[in-house]
Design brief:
This protein is an all-alpha fold. It has one domain. The chain has eleven helices and no strands. It is elongated and about 85 Å long.
């Protein structure tokens, strides 16, 4: 019985050693390629305002989509461009670049911080109010735009207060939804870019390691070379999945240092 246990432990130890060798064999290339692709992406983000463009396109599209099919009380259409201008004016004093360059969490926090101003003075920001609310809130907006003449009319005042409360909740939920959507899409495209870039780097690294002559490489390619290329591509793709992890670690270290 003890002999069987000893044999089993030896087999487990050998298996663990083999797994360790495989992990070490793959860990170096994965970490290296992932770090390089992360560095390229981070450099591109620092040089080119990619996030600002992305958030601008998504937010403008959201405002326009909300404005489509909506009409004010006088049946005039809702102007999403005017809504965007009012939003930036209230959030960052009209500084469009500063507004769209904020991380999506801070950008949406800026929008939430001005909700009370929009609802307290709805006639000054009518287009923005329509775009931030939903189509189901049109009746509440109509009530808000025509407040009761005095607080003595308890029924009208109660309806006005209820409509305003519902709009506060609706607008905040709407802002939460667009924050989630933009944040998810931004991470998705960064992940995809990291995977593609890492795959390219993996293949390029293999070609450089064998000193491939590109003018004759594809004509002289063998089955073993195809397998090696496939392995390099696989390593690159896997490294792409790890690149955001390295990016998040660097971001966390920078945040901690600041």
């Amino acid at each position: 019985m003890l002999l069987d246990s000893s044999i089993s432990m030896d087999a487990i130890n050998k298996s663990v050693q083999e797994i360790s060798k495989i992990v070490l064999l793959w860990a170096g290339p994965l970490a290296g390629i992932g770090t390089i692709s992360m560095a390229f992406i981070q450099t591109a983000k620092n040089i080119v305002p990619i996030r600002r463009w992305f958030q601008k396109i998504r937010l403008k599209g959201w405002l326009k989509e909300n404005a489509n099919g909506l009409y004010k009380k006088d049946k005039s259409t809702v102007d999403s461009t005017q809504a965007e201008q009012d939003l930036i004016k209230l959030a960052t004093s009209g500084d469009k670049e500063a507004f769209y360059d904020l991380p999506i969490e801070q950008l949406c926090d800026q929008i939430r911080s001005i909700v009370s101003v929009i609802l307290d003075y709805p006639r000054l920001n009518t287009d923005l109010l329509y775009c931030l609310a939903s189509k189901e809130s049109v009746d509440d907006i109509a009530i808000l735009l025509k407040p009761p003449p005095s607080a003595t009319d308890k029924k009208a005042f109660s309806e006005y207060a209820s409509a305003k409360t519902r709009l506060v909740i609706q607008v905040r939920c709407s802002v939460d939804a667009i924050q989630t959507s933009i944040g998810y899409r931004w991470k998705f495209w960064l992940q995809l870019a990291a995977i593609i870039l890492s795959a390219v780097i993996g293949v390029a690294a293999y070609l450089l390691s064998i000193g491939a002559n590109m003018s004759t490489f594809w004509s002289d390619i063998t089955q073993d070379t195809w397998r090696a290329l496939g392995s390099a591509l696989l390593v690159g793709v896997l490294a792409g999945f790890l690149a955001p992890v390295a990016r998040d670690l660097v971001a966390a270290i920078e945040k901690w240092r600041s």
